[in-house]
Design goal:
Length: 249
Amino acid sequence: MTNIPIIAGILRLSTKYDVDYLRRRALKHLDALYPLTLAAFDKRQETRTTPWRDNTAFFVASLARELRLEWLMPPVLYCVCSCPAGDIVDGYIWNNDVGQEERGDAGEGEEEGGRKDQVKKRIKLNKEDRGRCVSALIDLGNREKRDILGFLTVDEVHGCGTPSQCRKARVEVLRTVDTSRDYLDPLGAMDNRWEAYAKCVCKVCAEEGRRAHDEERERFWDALPRVLGLSDWDVLEELKGEALYGGDS
Ligand SMILES: [Zn+2]
């Protein structure tokens, strides 16, 4: 088992000295954590090859910019957007336990706190990526409410025998989604809620809700690069292919 700071070190060195196979091996760890397809993204907690660490998305965003890995950006910035907005704007804290030098964007690190032994360094993403995330927050929130959770606000589902009961139940589920989170995660909005949902609506509504939700999630993922002001998936897939497999054929 390796970890993200080690991978960052290997990436920097293998890029500097042009050691392709090491670089690709390191990139595969990042690809496992921030894949380009929704199917892979949904399974990433099972397929990840690096242990969980607070603020990893911020760190990888900085690293990806430093090493020109644009293809990683949509899933990475999506994860950044689910972090506290204050950390996006003011910078994030990275506890680097292997004592490596921290590198955000040059010159943008700021120190905060009073006494010397309590100083925590905050590292900022570059200005463009901070702007991308902040401008995307409202759009991402709207897409969650309007699209991904849109099935909870439909008046009536075709074939439903108890429309007013099911409508009431859907509104109730929407209320619990709204009040139970303090972070933005449109893709995970219904995580662990399907059982409760299926219990309070009829079978027709249960199935139709799930179908509509899954379809909107796919659409959301398709639009993600655009929402974040990044290149489209096909461009990024090509860049990723070059980075991971280029020169092999
Ligand atoms: Zn129903």
